[in-house]
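Re-running CHAT domain-containing protein to confirm reproducibility after the cluster update. Everything else is unchanged from the original entry.
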Amino acid sequence: MSPRIMARPLLILLPLLALAACARPPESAYVAATATTGPGDPAGKDAKGEDCIAQRGTALPSDLPIARSREVYCGGWTQPAARVVQLRGPGDAAQLDALASGGLWRTWLDQRVTCAAPQATTLSGGIPARLLACTRKNGGWPHVALVAAGPGGPVVADGVATATPVMEGLAAGQTSAAGPGQARSAALEIAVRRMAAEAFSANDVGRYEELMNVGRELNQAENFAAAEDAYRAALALQERVLGRDNPDTVTALMHLALNLSNQGRVQEAGALFARASTLATRAADPVATARLAHYQALSLLQEGQEEAGLARLRDAEARYAALIPPSMLQGNASGGGVVTDPAAVSAMLGLSEVRRYLGRALARNSEERAAAPALIADSRRLLRQTGLESGLLVARSLRTEAGASALLGREDAASRQLEAAARRFAIAAPGERPEAVTLFLTGAGRAAAGRRADALAAFRAGADILRARQIALPINLVLPYLDVLDAEATASPTNAPALRKEAFAAAQLAQRSNTVRFVQQASARIGAAGGDARVAEAVRKLQDADQALRALFAERDAGAAPGLDARIAAAQQARAEAESTVAAAAPGYRQLLLSAVDADAVAVALAPQEALVTMLLGRDHGWVLLVRGGAVQAARLNLGEVEAARLVNTLRAGVVDPGGRPGRFDPAPAQALYAALLAPLASALEGAETLVVVPDGPLLGIPFGLLLTGPADPNALGAAPWLIRRHAVVHVPSPQTLVTLRGAGPGSTAPLAYAGFGDFNPPNQAQLVRSFPVDRCAADARLASGLVRLPGTRIEVQEAQRLTGARPQDIRLGAEFTAAALRAADLGQRRIIHLATHALLPGELSCLQEPSIVVSPQAGAADANSAFVKASDLLGLKLNADLIILSACNTGGPGGAGGGEALSGLARAFFYAGARGLMVTHWAVDDAAAALTVADSLRRQQGGASSATSLRGAQLLLLDEAGKRLPDIFGHPFFWAPFALIGDGRRAAPARTAALDASVQTAAAQSAPRM
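Result of re-run:
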C-alpha cells in the first residue's frame, strides 16, 4: 500500500481516538476500592438522608501508624463516598495542624482534590477538629476533608460533602450526627452552609463518574454518537448541581465537544470549545488546559486545518510536560515504575498521544520526516511508564505507527504493525468499530502487496463487524474493498456475478452524510408501520422523543433556563417509555432503521423497466454500481471527489449566474459528468424507463436529468440530448431507502388530495429591523429585504387546486399564508402539499440559524420572526403525503464549494415528518416555467402516472415546445431542469408486492445484530 493512499484515512480517523487514551481513568484505577457486596456496619445517614455503611478499607499513606481504615458507601453508590482512618498518636492541636497542613496523607489528598486552608472547628461534643473545604479534581464536585481528635488518637477523613455527618460520627466514635442531647457540631454547620447550595448526593457523583466512564468506553469503540449522549448527560448532571458557568464542568464539556467534532459537527463543537476556553484556566483539574489544547488540535486536524492543528498540538505537548516529573520525561531508570499521581498519569497519557500525533504529522512533512520515528517511539515509552499500557492503547499505538511507517515508505513494517494492531483490537475491543477500521486498513495493505485473497479475508471480517454493529466507514476506507472485488471478478468470470453483488453490499458500508441516516429514519417509520396506524404512531413518538431530547440538550448548550433540568429528566423518561412501546409494537423497527439491503432486495423492489445506480467518490477515483434485472454491473471511475466538485460547480455556474439569472451554459461539464459516471454502463441502461440514482458527495448538488449523453449546440439547447430524454429520474439517499419506501405500498392513503400555499406577503421594513438588528445582522437585513412577493405563485397554486379538484378552503394565499395556517391545515390528511415561496438555507443568513421557508407574518406582529417557518418547526408536522412540492429557491441545496447536498435541512425535515417524495428545486426558479412544470406534473399524476414520470413529462414538454409555442430560451436548463424528485413519491402499484414484502423482511433479518 502506498504511503499516499494510507495517509489520509489515518490522519482523519486516528485523531478521533485520543479522547479515550487521555481521559482521566476512574479513581479506582489508582486506589483500590473494597467490594461493596460484603457485610458492613451501619454508619448512619448522610446529609441527603441516604443510608450509609462502613467497611474495612484500604490503608492510606500516613506519617503515623494506622489503627483502622474504613470506607463509607452511601445510597447504593459503588465507590466510597468517604474514607475514615484512625491513627495511633497524640491528638493535640499541634498534631491536628500538622496533619491538616502537610505530611503523607495531605500529599495523597492533594493529588485528588484542591483544598482551601484548614479551618479550626469542633465536632459534636466539642471535639477539636480541622475542616478543609475541597473540590474534586475529577468532576469538580464539592469535597470535604477532616482531621479530628478521636477517642483513640487523631482521625483523618475525606469524602463528598454530603458524607460529612457520617465522617464526623465515625471520627467521634458514633454512627450518626449529633442527637438532641449533644452539643452541636460546628464542623457540620460549616459543611452544611456549603452544601445548602449544592442539591446533590453521593449517587449524583457516582452517576456522573459512571456516565463519563461509559462515554469513554463508547469513544474507544468509536461510537461517537452514543458517546455524545453519555457526555451530554454527564454535563447536564454537573450543570444542574454546580451551575452552567462552574469551571469544573470543563472536562465533560471538552469531551462532548470533541465527540461532536468526530461526527463532523464542527460548528457545534466550536461553540462548546469556546465555552471550555473560558473555564479551563479556573478548573480544579490541573490537566484541563493541556487537554483543551489537545482536543482543539484534534478537532482542527479533523477539519483539515493541519498547520493550526500542529501548532495547538505543540502547545498541548508543553502543557502536559509541565505536569510530569522530569525524571519520567527523560526516561531515567530512577524515574521508572508506576505513576500514582492521577494528574501526572493523565498528563503522561495525554503527552503520549500528542507525541504520537506529532510524529504522525511530521511523517507527512518531507522537511521534518526524519524526526517522526523518535517521537512515535517516545510516545510508546511514556505509555509504558504510566503502568497502564492496556491492550487497547497498544493497539491504537500500533495502528498509528503503521500509518507513520507507510508515510516513511516502510511498507513491510506498516503491514506488520497493522496485523499486530488487528490482533490486539480483536482481544481488547472485539467486534467494535476500531477492529473493523484496522481490518479494512489491513486489507488495503495486503491488496497493495498483491495478496488479494488475504485482503478479501480482512475486508470480509471487517464488513461482518460493521453489519453486526450497524455502523459505516468513510468512503476512502471502503474503496480498496471494491477495487479488490473487481480484480477478483476480472480474474474469475465464473464468480463475477456473486462478487459484483458483494461489491454492491460493500458500497453501502460507506457513508458520507448524516442525510442518509435522517431519511432512513423517516422511511423506516413508514415501512415499520405496514399500514398499522398504531405502530406508526408508536415509532413516531419515539422519534419525537429523540428530537425533543436533542432540542433540550441544545437549549442547555445555549444557556441555562428555569426548569430546564426537570424538563430534561421528563424527556428522558418519555423517551424510555416510547422505546419500550416501539419494542413491543414494532420489533423489527431498529433493524429496518439501520440495515442495508442486498442487490437481490433492490432487484425485487425495482420494476422491470427500472434500474438503480449508486455511486461512491474517493480522493482520486470512485465506483458506480448498477442493479437491473437481478444482476449487478460495476465500473471503476477515473473521477475523484475534487474533480467531480469542480465539474458540478462549473455546470451550475453555467445554469444560473450569481444574480440568479440564466447563465452562459457550457455543455462540456454536463457531457463530462455523463461520460465519467453513466457512459461506462450505457448498454445496461438501454431501455430503462426510470433511473433511480443514489448520488454521492458533490453529485448531490445537481439534478441528474440535465446531464448530456452527447454533444450539444449551446444555441439549440431544446434539442440537446439531455439524460431526461432517456429516463425519468428518481434521486434517493440510499438503496435501503428505496426498498423501505416501496415496501410500504405505492402511495398515500390520505383522504384529501391537495393543500397549497403561495403569494406570501413579505415582512415590512420595521419588522425586519427588529428581527435583524443592523448592528449584528446588517447583511441578513439586506438579504431579507430582497424577499419580494412572488405573484406568479398565486396562479401556480390556483391551477394546481383546479387540477387536483381541491376545494377553495384547501389553499391559502397572500396574508392567509401564515405559519398558523400551516399548522391548522390538517396536513396529515393531504396526499400532495404545495409550498410556493422563498426558501432560505444555512449560510445565506447568519442570524437565522436554521433553513426556513418564508410565509406572511402574523397580523400585527411587531417583528418578522413569524414569517420564517424553520426546519425544526416542520419536524412537528404529522404527514402522510405522496409528494411535497417545494417550489421555492434552492430547496434542494446549492452546489457550493463542495457540491452541497441535494437534500437541504428543509427537505430532511419533511422526510422526517412523513413524506414519501419531495419535488425540490436546485436553484431560483422562473415563475412561468415553475407554474408550467408544477401544473403539468400534477395533471399527469392525476391521470395515474407516477411522480417521476409526471415530472419528466412536464420537463420534456418545456423542451419540446421551446421555440414553438414557448420562447426559445425555455430550452435552457435554468427553466426546465431546476426540479428534482427526491424519494419515490406516488408510483404505480408493484406487480410483485408479496415478493417485495419478503425481500424487506429478509433484508431486516440479514442485518440483525449478532448475539
